[in-house]
Structures are given as structure tokens and as C-alpha cells.
Write a structure and sequence with these properties.
InterPro entries: Interferon-induced_GILT. GO terms for molecular function: oxidoreductase activity, acting on a sulfur group of donors, disulfide as acceptor. It is an enzyme of class 1 (oxidoreductase). It is found in: Secreted; Lysosome. This protein is mainly alpha-helical and 239 residues long. 50% of the residues lie in helices and 12% in strands. Helix 4 packs across helix 7 and helix 4 crosses helix 8. The longest helix has 18 residues. The protein is elongated and about 70 Å long.
Amino acid sequence: MAPTVPLAVLALVALVAPVASGLGAAPGCDYPAHRWCSSRDIAVACQVESRCRSLPHPAAPPVELSLYYESLCPACREFLVIKLFSTWLLLPEGMLNITLVPYGNAQERNVSGKLDFRCQHGPEECLGNMMEACLMHEAKNFSTYFPVIFCLESGSSVTKNLEAQCLQIYAPEVDSGRIAACVQGDTGVALMHHNAQLTEALDPPHQYVPWITVNGKHTNELQAQAEASLLGLVCHLYQ
């Protein structure tokens, strides 16, 4: 009487046999047939990648969105708070990269060798722009500073709620003293100068704020789609 073969062994043979018989490995493939589809690196080395259906597909590059805005601009605040922040919360990590450039319609002047900024909504907006630029500079991590900026833009005062409310709630690990030193010193001026250069380099030049670029491009159609349904636009563009 023939020896009984365990069912688990028969199942393993059934799984491996089609791979071994149906796939031809590249010459020089040093891996046994049952490992050809165990990882993408091995599948590539054995030139059987297209036949390994179980391999995870590589992640698509994220959609790149840049927002050129002013801290006290009502339309900018509405888009950032209602559309951009909520979309960022809903999407899985890695689908959307956001760049925030607080400057907008400000003007940069050289006064007696020092840079001076004039903003559309007055000195308080210039302060708000610089505070948010310094916050980004000090916090560095987007997921750390974006909730703080959301808090500032959705609150009663962009310039007065940083330390007492927004930073304490959303990013208590960020040193408010370093942000204040940045705003009052040369670093804040340098950051605003950088934002001025980014804004002035836009092609086509910005005509209003908020000004939105998607994957480095701005068109009236993209702007309208982003403002109408940003989540839908990102999901459509993500490959």
C-alpha cells in the first residue's frame, strides 16, 4: 500500500508546480521556483515579474499641490480650512503632497538696504504670513505644522492664537520662543524673501489668491476643479 501523503504537502505541490512549469526563469536565476514570486526583487532578478500576480504594485507618486495664499485673505482661509485640510485628513498618506506659500499679493521693497514687505490686508497680514512661514521652518514636518496653520486660519485671529491655543493643542513640542525669534529676526525676513521669489516665479504669473498649482501646473480648469471638489480631483489624478 502506497504511503499516505499529507494534504498540506499536496496543496503546496499544487501551488508550486504551475509556477515551476509555467514560468521560465532567466539564465543565472539562483532562486528555486517556489521563491520566484516571493518578492519583487527576486521576480525582477529571475525576469518573471509580469507573471507574478501576487506581487504588490509599487505606489504611484503623490499628487503635488501648491497653495499660494495670504494669511488674512477670506477666500484663502476658506479654501485652506474647508477644502484643503479636510482633503488631507481623508486621503491616505502618500497620495497628496502639499506646499504652502504664504505671500500672495504682497510686495517686497528694499528700504535702505533692508527688505520691507507690504501686504494686501495690511501689516497684520504680513505678520501672519511670517508667523506661518516661521512655524513651517521650525516645525519642519508637514503633519506637525499643518494642523496648527488650520487652527490659526479657522480661528478668530491668525496672529494672536498661536501660542495660547493652536500650538498648545496641536503641536506642544514646537518651541514658541524659536518661532518668535524667527519672526523678529533675519530668518523671518529671509523666509518671506524666499516666498516672494517662489510667487514671482510662477508661470503663468498669479493673478489672484488663492492661486493653486497641481503637479506644477496652473490652469483655470484645474483651479476651478480644486475649488469645487479637491478630493475628487486628487483621486482622479492619482495613478
